[in-house]
Structure formats: C-alpha cells, structure tokens
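Reading a protein record of the kind used here takes little practice once its layout is understood. Each number in the token line that follows is a code from a learned vocabulary of backbone shapes. One such record is shown here in full, so that the layout can be seen directly:
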Amino acid sequence: MTSLAVPDAAAVAAVVDHYRARWTIEEYFKALKSGCAYEQRQLESRTTLLNALGVLAPLAWRLLALRTAADDGAAAASLLDPDELAVLRQLPPGRTLPPTPTAAAVWAAVACLGGHFPHNGRPGWQVLWTGYRKLCDRVEGYRLARAMLHTASSDVVPNM
C-alpha cells in the first residue's frame, strides 16, 4: 500500500524501489544503534549527542558499506586503505588474506577480530563494531610505529 500515485508500471516500479531502500536505511540505523551503541552512550546534552552522532554516523556507514560489498562480492581495496589491509593481513593469528582480498574476506576477518566464530552464522553488528574498533586501534599503532621508525632513521647523522 502506498499513498503515492501509481498510474503506470513505471510508477509502481519506482515505489517498489523506494520501499527496497528502506531496508538499507533500517540496517544503517541498526549498525548505528546496535553496533556503534549510540543509544547506550548516556549523553545528556544535545551538543554531546550531535557530536557523538557526527563521529559514529560515518563509522556505521563504513560497517554497512563493508557488509554490503561483502554480499556483492566486491574488492576490499575500495573500502579499506592500504594500512588497514596491511594490519588486517597480520590479524588474527592463523587467518590470512590474499594479496587482493575480497570484501567478504575482509568482512570475515574483521568479524573474527571481534570474536566471531565462522560456524556461528552471519556476524551481528556488535561483533563487527568490536572487530572494527580493534582494527582501528591496531592501525593507529601501526602508523605510530612507522612514524617513529621514520623519525629514528632521519635522526641518524652521517659521519663527516
């Protein structure tokens, strides 16, 4: 049922497409609420709620984009930067990614990092969020270590 005018088959198809988009929107809000725990943050002022939303909304979108790309069989290079892929190749122990991993392989590795066991079915938003947070923390450490190595190597003064 719809309140929109549907005079022909093209209009019916447009209404159906709009309705299909609703499920993606619902999944986005599920990622934001369940995965990113937006509602559980116990923030009191409008400003802090909006600030948290400003930080968490792109992260929820990224999780949804990764899951959607995994379902579509896309390549992971368009979703993760090289540092994230480099770190993910090392984590978790015993799980390796191919040189050009698919989004599905990356999604499974992030879920595993969040504590998901593959035989338990499809991972939920909380597991994906936990895995993604752990990945982000490790990527930050990776970048800091690389910067420290770069700084240390440039501090060496050549002999005269």
